[in-house]
Design goal:
Enoyl-CoA_hydra_C, 10 strands, 6-stranded mixed β-sheet, alpha/beta, ClpP/crotonase-like_dom_sf, EC 4.2.1.150, Lyase 2-enoyl-coa Hydratase, Chain  A, domain 2, 11 helices, 4-stranded mixed β-sheet, 2-enoyl-CoA Hydratase, Chain A, domain 1
Length: 271
Amino acid sequence: MLKYEKGVEAMYESIIVEKEGAVGIISLNRPKKLNSLNLKVFQEMSDALKECTQDNDLKVLILSGSEKVFGAGADLKMISEEAPTSLKAHYFFSRQALPIYHQLAEFPGPTIAAISGLALGGVFELALACDLRIASETATFGLPEINLGLIPGGGGTQRLPRLVGMTKAKELLFTGDTFDAQEAYRIGLVNKVVAPDRLMEEAKYMANRLAQKPAFALQLLKKAVNQGMELPLPLALELEGRCFELLFSTEDAKEGIRAFMEKRKPNFPGN
C-alpha cells in the first residue's frame, strides 16, 4: 500500500492523495483540462480508493477539486476514442468507468464532496456518489449530456432523483441546464454553502467531527440507510433492526452507554 502521511502527497499524475489523521483526501489534479475525467484518472482513482478502503485507520474520505473547478465532466476526446460504438462503450463504461463510482459509493465510512467552481457531467456524478456535499458559493452544477445526444452514465439518472426527487431531477436531466450553489442547497442536493476560501476548512471540520464517532456504528448506519432505500419498508426496517442489535456486542456501544450513565464524554475504543 502506498504510504501517505499528513503533508505528503501520494505519487499520482492526475490526482493527489493525502492523509490527515483519520481523514483521507483525494483531489482531482488536471488543472489544464479542468479536472476532466480520462483513463488515467479512472485508473488512479481506482487504486487510490482501494488503498483508502484497506487503510483501517482511515474513517472518512473527502473528494475535492481545485478552488476554480471541481471538474468539467469527462474528457470528450477520450470518450470518442474509447467508445466509438455501443459495444466498445459498454466495455469501457462497465469495466473502467462505472467501477470507480461504485468504489466511491461503497467506501465503508462517510464520504464528503467539497465542490468549488464547475461541477459538470461525470465529475458531478462523483459528487453524487458521496454521502455529503459541501459547496462553495462559486459552485455551478449540471448534467449537460442531453445536449450532446447522450445521457449521464455514471449514476446521474439514478442518484440525482434519489437526492432531489424525480420531478426536479427530470427537469435538470431533460434540459441539461446548469444551476448554482444556492439552488443546489434549496433543492437539498448540498448540505452547506460556504465562501470559497472556507470550503476545505468546512469539509475537514465535518470530516473530523465524523471521524470522532464510533467507526463501526457509522459503517452500519451508512449501510442501513443506503441499502434500506432500495428495499420495501418492512425489509428495510428488518435490516435496521439487525444492524441495531449487532452494535450491542461492540465495545464502542458499551463505552457509549457507560459514558452516558456516568455523565462523561465517551472514549470509543474503536471496536
